[in-house]
């Protein structure tokens, strides 16, 4: 299977704000720009999956039309990590001891009382295992940088705790609208 992992376009949110699971819009111009860059690299008639958050579904719906695909399957397991009380707060406004607690246990800590990376890794693994059983040639997944890192960790054959540690410790450089292609 060829897995086409796409990070959503830049949402309309101020810089340096924690927004994990918050459902944010994306400017139509941003969607159009990302779509134009992606289309030459994506297969037609592929199975399409998306995080249920608007910054992903707006792009996946637009891609489905252009690629002659069925509407994307919206899957909660592809949603970004929930940062609890940290959602929509400036990173500088989050108390330093809370940030330090997360830094000391990146995989297990639940920022703002939300989800831990370990919990997110388990739902991503469940999605990936189900996807493997579908016997499809091409799958396009529109989601988030954290989810992409975890899906990539699945391809290394890591256990769920190893996936969580891998994703939590590895800084990401996945740009908004970036495409990563994984051959499974």
Automatic annotation (TrEMBL):
SMART domains: PGAM
Alphabetized Pfam families for the sequence: His_Phos_1
InterPro entries, alphabetized: His_Pase_superF_clade-1, His_PPase_superfam
Protein name, per record: Alpha-ribazole phosphatase
UniProt source species: Oxalicibacterium flavum
Lineage: Bacteria, Pseudomonadati, Pseudomonadota, Betaproteobacteria, Burkholderiales
């Amino acid at each position: 299977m060829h897995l086409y992992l796409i990070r959503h376009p830049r949402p309309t949110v101020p810089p340096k704000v924690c927004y994990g699971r918050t459902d944010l819009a994306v400017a139509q111009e941003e969607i159009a720009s990302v779509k134009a860059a992606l289309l030459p690299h994506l297969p037609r008639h592929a199975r399409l999956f998306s995080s249920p958050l608007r910054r992903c579904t707006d792009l996946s719906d637009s891609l489905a039309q252009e690629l002659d695909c069925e509407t994307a399957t919206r899957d909660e397991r592809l949603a970004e990590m929930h940062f609890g009380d940290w959602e929509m707060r400036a990173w500088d406004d989050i108390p330093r001891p809370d940030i330090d607690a997360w830094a000391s246990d990146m995989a297990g800590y639940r920022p703002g009382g939300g989800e831990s990376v370990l919990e997110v890794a388990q739902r991503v693994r469940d999605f990936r295992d189900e996807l493997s059983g579908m016997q499809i040639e091409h799958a396009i997944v529109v989601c988030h940088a954290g989810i992409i890192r975890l899906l990539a960790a699945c391809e290394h054959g890591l256990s769920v705790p190893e996936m969580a540690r891998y994703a939590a410790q590895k800084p990401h450089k996945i740009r908004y609208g970036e495409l990563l292609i994984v051959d499974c």
